[in-house]
Design brief:
Elements: H1 3-6, H2 12-23, H3 26-32, H4 37-51, E1 56-59, E2 62-65, H5 67-87, E3 100-105, H6 107-124, E4 129-134, H7 139-144, E5 150-156, E6 173-181, E7 183-188, H8 192-195, H9 202-207, E8 209-213, H10 222-229, E9 235-240, H11 243-250, E10 256-260, H12 261-270, E11 273-277, E12 285-292, H13 299-312, H14 314-319
Parallel strand pairs: 3-4, 3-5, 8-9, 8-10
Antiparallel strand pairs: 1-2, 5-12, 6-12, 7-10, 7-11
Protein name: LysR family transcriptional regulator
InterPro entries: LysR-type_TF (IPR050389), LysR_HTH_N (IPR000847), LysR_subst-bd (IPR005119), WH-like_DNA-bd_sf (IPR036388), WH_DNA-bd_sf (IPR036390), YidZ_PBP2 (IPR037402)
Pfam families: HTH_1, LysR_substrate
């Protein structure tokens, strides 16, 4: 199909032809289209010129379609129905939708939030497909390009600093806060630090070995930069690709893992670990739901965002 050829045709003529074929009368067609008799006659003349056919010819009872017009009847009606659907407002029915959503999430959010919403989400939309990707250094760019539709990342609530431990989101990405959190420490149940709880302080923390999970290809984050500003540095004995690997390591070693409080609560339910306070004042973090502005008014995307907020943070859903 050469779309360029359609530019030479007034597509309103096709609507007029449809009404003429239905009414088989210029007078009645003019009334339906709120045109004068003269304007309708001129429209029929233009149609005859476009199709190089009389299309409708007079007889004793009105006008009869030519064989060519009869051939046009069904495809014309189908074409106009498709055009009409293009003009309908977008809609989304979760009960029957087979839409594919691509999401990305930082590791801790995946562990924390997925169990709370995955089941209810699929119970409301049993035929949708969710494709999860780990958040990495390219995720923000992929969100802007439409390769990923929705992401969950973390914002560190700190400003006026000369360093950035996380990538700033592009301005065309919109976001909604999900939950605030703060940092704590996790150790195994018989960790030496627990035998000397009264001596659990920054000095003990810094003398111990640590395991750190990579985020966006980096293992240093806000904690390490704040320590460096104060002239300190952690002993990072192990660097792993994900939080789950860090949990496995600390339950079999004397290493310490520093992570979000909510993730620590999850970890203690599944691993023989103990939580200790972080012996250092640190700004809070906020989990963010983020997406490209092109999806702001998309009904399916709006539904998915609403569902995630509802199940991740019901209080926030009620407040909205």
């Amino acid at each position: 199909m050469k779309v360029e050829s359609l530019a030479r045709i007034d597509l309103n003529l096709l609507v007029s032809l449809q009404v003429l074929l239905e009414e088989q009368s210029c007078t009645r067609a003019a009334e339906r289209l709120h045109l004068s008799q003269s304007a309708m006659s001129k429209t029929l003349a233009r149609l005859r010129d476009v199709f190089q056919d009389p299309l409708l010819v007079r007889n004793a009872h009105g006008m009869l379609p030519t064989p060519h017009a009869e051939q046009l009847r069904d495809p014309l009606q189908i074409a106009l129905q498709h055009v009409s659907k293009l003009l309908d407002p977008p809609s989304f029915n979760p009960n029957v939708s087979r839409r594919h959503f691509t999401l990305t999430s930082i590791d801790s959010a995946y562990q924390l939030f997925l169990p709370s919403y995955f089941g209810p989400l699929l119970s409301k939309a049993p035929n949708i497909e969710l494709d999860y990707r780990p958040w990495n250094a390219q995720s923000a760019h992929m969100l802007t390009q439409g390769q990923i539709e929705l992401g969950i990342t973390v914002k560190e609530n700190v400003s006026n600093v000369p360093w950035k431990s996380t990538v700033e989101l592009p301005t065309n990405l919109h976001s909604q806060p999900l939950k605030d959190d703060y940092m704590v420490c996790l150790v195994r149940r018989d960790h030496p630090a627990l035998a000397k709880k009264s001596r659990w302080n920054l000095k003990t923390y810094l003398k111990s070995g640590h395991v750190q999970a990579y985020c966006e290809g980096k293992y240093k984050w806000m904690l390490d930069f704040i320590l460096a500003d104060q002239g300190y540095e952690r002993i990072i004995a192990a660097k792993v690709p994900e939080f789950q690997a860090a949990l496995t390591i600390i339950q079999h070693s004397d290493l310490i893992f520093t992570g979000p409080k909510q993730f620590a609560t999850y970890a203690k339910q599944h691993y023989p670990l103990v939580e200790l306070p972080l012996p250092l004042e640190l700004p809070t973090i906020t989990y963010l739901l983020t997406w490209h502005e092109r999806f702001d008014e998309d009904p399916g995307h709006q539904w998915l965002r609403q569902m995630l907020v509802e199940y991740i943070n019901p209080e926030l859903s009620v407040a909205c």
